[in-house]
Amino acid sequence: MIQLVEDQLDVDSYLELREAVHFRKLTRDQAKRGLDNSLYTLVAYKDGKPVGMGRIVGDGAIICYVQDLIIRPEVQGEGIGGMILEALKDFVVNIGFEGTTMMFDLMCAKGREPFYQKHGFIARPTKELGPGMIQFLDL
């Protein structure tokens, strides 16, 4: 059974989940500040062990980003990612202003596009929207 826990993601679990899927390494200070500044975090537990997570960052009015949607490789394909993504979407819908439009964005890992498209996301570029872009700043 999967248990979803809101806003209780600790630094150790966050770093461990990131490492499990080979995301960029972070310092503990980076991880703590990132979690502290998240609008919302969600952790999926299976048999008491954190097996997935997602978080929302953004301004909560105009734009929110899905950040770090992570599912441990050994439980991928069990529907946990979809459960987390739908819960993240529900959070965003509930904090938005009625009668407005919220941009709900993400940057996915290469090859994960079909998963997100299945959940209503569109790949960029489109006729109206340019490509997403990123820059890594070494500090």
% residues in beta strands = 15-25%
Structural class: alpha+beta
Helix content: 25-40%
State the major sheet. 5 strands, mixed
* Termini separation: 42 Å
Q: What's the total count of β strands?
A: 5
Q: How are the strands of the biggest sheet laid out side by side?
A: 1-2-3-4-5
Low-confidence stretches: none
Rg over C-alpha atoms, rounded to the nearest angstrom: 15 Å
Shape: globular
Order of helices and strands: EHHEEEHEH
Q: Number of helical runs?
A: 4
The pLDDT mean sits at 95
Question: Would you kindly provide a written description of the structure presented here, covering whatever features stand out?
Answer:
This protein is an alpha+beta fold. Helices cover 29% and strands 24% of the residues. The chain has helices at residues 11-20, 28-36, 80-95, 113-118; strands at residues 2-6, 40-46, 49-58, 63-71, 103-105. α1 crosses α2. The mean pLDDT is 95.
Describe this structure in a few short sentences:
The protein is an alpha+beta fold and 139 residues long.
Task: Spell out the blueprint of helices and strands.
Elements: E1 2-6, H1 11-20, H2 28-36, E2 40-46, E3 49-58, E4 63-71, H3 80-95, E5 103-105, H4 113-118
Parallel strand pairs: 4-5
Antiparallel strand pairs: 1-2, 2-3, 3-4
Helix pairs in contact: 1-2
Summary tags:
5-stranded mixed sheet, single chain, 139 residues, 4 helices, alpha+beta
